[in-house]
């Protein structure tokens, strides 16, 4: 408000139109030029071109002059300022609006069908339609070479339909005899893998070889009915046949896993699958066995070569071992992991946990002690196991006026980003920031992160610090913005501030304007329907959905929804946090499946990767915010005798997540199943995949 009043006051002054002020102070320089820039943008919005040009002339020494020139040029495309656009590109190579202007200019030339100018000014774009237009028009002018044909083949060989602008390119390949069955088959393979059946049918018609047409028809059968087709399959071995069979086995493992072991045992003897194909099939069998909770899942994982142990395989194996409480298998597999992977926090924690579960506490404790020194989810769990305080390992990024000025001189884009942010032009500010993040050195990235925090541009401060690897500046990464609003909402809903802050940090990184792909809005990412529901319970009236963006409303409604989730799940912060992300229905379903699980295991077994990471992050952030807030006098004064026991402490004590009745029923069922297995101990249950 003060900023607006100050600007309005200066706008009323009769300012000189002389562009140089020899005696002005640094503050006066910025104040006056910011006013002129605001006036220029207002004139642009009003299409007052004379006023816009007048102000632009006055701002030649202002960082955003290049942006005004961009706006001027894009508004004059119809007048064909070809030479000026070329000069702009040459002068502002490190300004993001140069590339934007170029893309818009090419679209204009395409629309005008000025193909000579389009070809003259074309540079590669991340735009398939434009790329095809460029190649087609060059060929139309008789300009052909091997590189262009290579580009055309690359445009063809994709597993999806391409824009109509690419048809002339593909027609030219056909006319030149380049559209071979081999090229068609390469695209057909991708179409099958992406389940693009209309495209596949179109491509099959283009095949000239009767044998390939027959093989393509067989591939269709293998895709749509893998079990039936494989059971009667007798084609001779060939590279194409092996590709088709690999695709079919991957499909079958997802649809009818029980049919896979016998069929795979037979086919891998009859056909010379490559090691890559074998590994791909075995990996899918292992993952599907785990997801479908087949008894042979762990054995399937053990059969996988180390090279197949990517992040997905690691996580699913861990979940499978935890579900089965097979601590010995878990320890065996951890011991076989590469040293770097074995020593990462997650595997270190679960190695210690498995050692504890098998009665080897003395071996587990050193692992937990080392882990407890890290500011990390599993590090906090380890600290609670040992009764130690959480390690903060805080180290601030160095930022002085001298460092700041040096950065501005070295990278003018930082100054442009600052000015865009000052004017509330967040899209333009992010364009500058994103370009900077691509080429700044680590030290400069750290400085820009600290600067963004200084400007109260919290989300970019957080993301930039992470990109720079500056994880230890907790003031930058965990701001205490909206302190009064968070405190008021916490008091109203009888919640603790660290939880609300942890949710905000995870949901929006303090960007109050952010909207998710699903439509969630603002700091605490509330869906409009949820916001209205909570508002009704709180006796608030939301006249329009955009009110949810306002920090006061968003935090109050978000805290209200957190209280609803906490009440619904009997005061369990882990479950309430999971419900805030995935919905209470999903959490209830997971609890029904595993009603009496230790909390650290329950979190690791959350089926949704996003929700699992979400819960772990919020719990970690709660611990950090507890420490940040303990240094705040107002927060200390508000603490009472019943202050929160951090959820991780509860998890470390291995408390269970659900009510006694469901847990008791689950244990009774498990006991009955054990008795049944004893009665039928002679029954053979396959435990390995050949």
From TrEMBL:
Keyword Lyase belongs to the record: yes
Pfam families for the chain: SLT, SLT_L
Domain of life: Bacteria
SUPFAM superfamilies in UniProt: Bacterial muramidases, Lysozyme-like
The Lytic transglycosylase superhelical linker domain, residue ranges: 409-474
Keyword vocabulary terms for this entry: Lyase, Signal
GO-annotated cellular components: periplasmic space
Domain Transglycosylase SLT: 487-596
Record InterPro entries: Lysozyme-like_dom_sf (IPR023346), Lytic_TGlycoase_superhlx_L_sf (IPR037061), Lytic_TGlycosylase_superhlx_L (IPR012289), Lytic_TGlycosylase_superhlx_U (IPR008939), Transglycosylase_SLT_dom_1 (IPR008258)
Secretion signal span: 1-22
Any GO MF annotation of the entry: hydrolase activity, hydrolyzing O-glycosyl compounds
EC number(s) reported in the record: 4.2.2.-
Enzyme class name: lyase
Family: Belongs to the transglycosylase Slt family.
Full protein name: Soluble lytic murein transglycosylase
């Amino acid at each position: 408000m003060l900023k607006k009043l100050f600007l309005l006051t200066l706008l009323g002054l009769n300012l000189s139109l002389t562009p140089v002020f020899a005696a002005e102070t640094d503050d006066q320089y910025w104040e006056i030029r910011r006013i002129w820039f605001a006036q220029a943008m207002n004139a642009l919005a009003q299409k007052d071109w004379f006023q816009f040009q007048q102000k632009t002339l006055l701002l030649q020494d202002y960082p955003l002059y290049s942006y005004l020139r961009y706006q001027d040029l894009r508004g004059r495309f119809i007048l064909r300022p070809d030479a000026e656009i070329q000069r702009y590109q040459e002068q502002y190579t490190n300004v993001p609006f140069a590339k934007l202007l170029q893309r818009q200019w090419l679209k204009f030339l395409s629309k005008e069908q000025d193909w000579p100018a389009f070809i003259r000014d074309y540079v590669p774009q991340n735009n398939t339609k434009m790329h095809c237009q460029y190649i087609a028009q060059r060929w139309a002018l008789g300009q052909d070479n091997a590189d262009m044909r290579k580009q055309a083949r690359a445009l063809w060989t994709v597993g999806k339909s391409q824009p109509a602008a690419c048809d002339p390119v593909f027609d030219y390949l056909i006319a030149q005899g380049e559209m071979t069955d081999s090229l068609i088959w390469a695209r057909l393979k991708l179409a099958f893998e992406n389940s693009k059946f209309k495209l596949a049918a179109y491509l099959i018609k283009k095949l000239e070889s009767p044998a390939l047409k027959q093989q393509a028809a067989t591939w269709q059968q293998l895709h749509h009915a893998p079990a039936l087709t494989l059971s009667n399959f007798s084609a001779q071995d060939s590279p194409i046949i092996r590709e088709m069979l690999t695709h079919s086995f991957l499909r079958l493992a997802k649809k009818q896993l029980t049919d896979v072991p016998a069929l795979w045992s037979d086919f891998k003897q009859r056909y010379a699958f490559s090691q890559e194909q074998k590994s791909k099939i075995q990996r899918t069998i292992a993952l599907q066995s785990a997801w479908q909770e087949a008894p042979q899942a762990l054995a399937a994982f053990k059969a996988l070569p180390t090279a197949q142990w990517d992040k997905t395989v690691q996580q699913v194996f861990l979940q499978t071992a935890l579900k089965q409480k097979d601590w010995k298998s878990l320890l065996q597999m951890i011991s076989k992991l590469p040293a770097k992977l074995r020593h990462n926090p997650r595997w270190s924690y679960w190695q210690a946990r498995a050692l504890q579960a098998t009665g080897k506490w003395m071996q587990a404790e050193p692992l937990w002690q080392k882990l407890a020194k890290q500011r990390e989810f599993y590090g906090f769990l380890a600290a609670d196991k040992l009764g130690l305080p959480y390690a903060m390992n805080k180290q601030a990024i160095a930022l002085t006026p001298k460092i700041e000025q040096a950065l501005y001189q070295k990278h003018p884009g930082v100054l442009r980003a600052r000015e865009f942010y000052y004017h509330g032009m967040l899209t333009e500010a992010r364009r500058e920031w994103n370009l900077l993040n691509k080429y700044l050195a680590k030290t400069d990235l750290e400085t820009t992160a600290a600067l963004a925090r200084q400007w109260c541009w919290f989300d970019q401060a957080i993301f930039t610090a992470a990109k720079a690897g500056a994880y230890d500046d907790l003031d930058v990464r965990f701001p205490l913005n909206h302190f009064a609003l968070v405190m008021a909402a916490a008091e109203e809903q009888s919640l603790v501030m660290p939880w609300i802050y942890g949710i905000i940090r995870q949901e929006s990184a303090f960007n109050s304007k952010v909207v998710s792909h699903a439509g969630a809005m603002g700091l605490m990412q509330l869906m409009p329907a949820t916001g209205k529901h909570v508002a009704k319970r709180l006796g608030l009236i939301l006249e329009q959905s955009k009110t949810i963006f306002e920090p006061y409303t968003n935090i109050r409604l978000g805290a209200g929804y957190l209280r609803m989730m906490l009440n619904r799940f009997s005061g369990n912060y882990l479950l309430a946090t999971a419900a805030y992300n995935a919905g209470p229905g999903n959490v209830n379903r997971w609890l029904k499946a595993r009603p009496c699980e230790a909390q650290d295991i329950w979190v690791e077994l959350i089926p949704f990767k996003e929700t699992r990471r979400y819960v772990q992050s919020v719990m970690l952030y709660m611990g950090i915010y507890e420490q940040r807030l303990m240094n705040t006098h107002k927060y200390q004064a508000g603490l009472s005798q019943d202050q929160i026991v951090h959820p991780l402490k509860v998890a470390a004590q291995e408390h269970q997540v659900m009510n006694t009745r469901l847990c008791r029923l689950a244990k009774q069922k498990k006991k009955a199943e054990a008795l049944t297995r004893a009665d039928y101990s002679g029954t053979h249950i396959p435990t390995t995949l050949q």
